[in-house]
Amino acid sequence: MSDAMDELEARAHRQLNRIRELGEQMAAVRVRETSPGGVVTAVVDGNGALCDLELSGAVSGMSPSEFEQVLVSTAARAAHRAFAARGDLVIAFNHEATEEIART
């Protein structure tokens, strides 16, 4: 009985460590996207929140609507990639968990 409890406890610790690692990996997601022509560079986190924004001098020659379109589309591409990166992390986590279950 003690061996079974020890194995159960060890498995629970492994799962907890994997969940913590997943959380750390998801929190570390950062995606940098630059617009065509390099006018706008947006950096977003794994939630799609804007973390950094760089504008080149060429922005001064754009109309407000052109600037808005470039900014929004660049940030949206970055967010899309960030969400995909988070999705890949979850898929890998689920795959590992499924393999662990199959081994038991």
User: What's the multimeric state?
Assistant: single chain
CATH T-level fold name: Ybab, Chain: A
Shape: rod-shaped
Report on the biggest sheet. Answer: 3 strands, antiparallel
Q: What is the H-and-E element order?
A: HEEEH
Which structural category do the helix and sheet elements fall into?
A: alpha+beta
Fraction in helix: 55-70%
Q: Taking Cα atoms only, what radius of gyration do you get, to the nearest Å?
A: 21 Å
CATH architecture: 2-Layer Sandwich
Through-space gap between termini:
16 Å
Give the number of domains: 1
| Unreliable stretches covering 5 or more consecutive residues | none
Q: Could you name the CATH homologous superfamily? A: Nucleoid-associated protein YbaB-like domain
Tally the helices. Answer: 2
Strand order of the largest sheet: 1-2-3
Give your account of this protein's structure.
With 104 residues, the chain is an alpha+beta fold. It has one domain: Nucleoid-associated protein YbaB-like domain (Ybab, Chain: A, 2-Layer Sandwich), CATH 3.30.1310. Helix content is 63%, strand content 16%. The protein is built from two helices and three strands; from the N terminus they run αβββα. A three-stranded antiparallel β-sheet has the order 1-2-3, with helices on one face. A hairpin with a 4-residue loop joins strand 2 and strand 3. It is rod-shaped, with a radius of gyration of 21 Å. The mean pLDDT is 93.
Helices and strands in order:
Elements: H1 2-27, E1 30-34, E2 40-45, E3 50-55, H2 64-103
Helix pairs in contact: 1-2
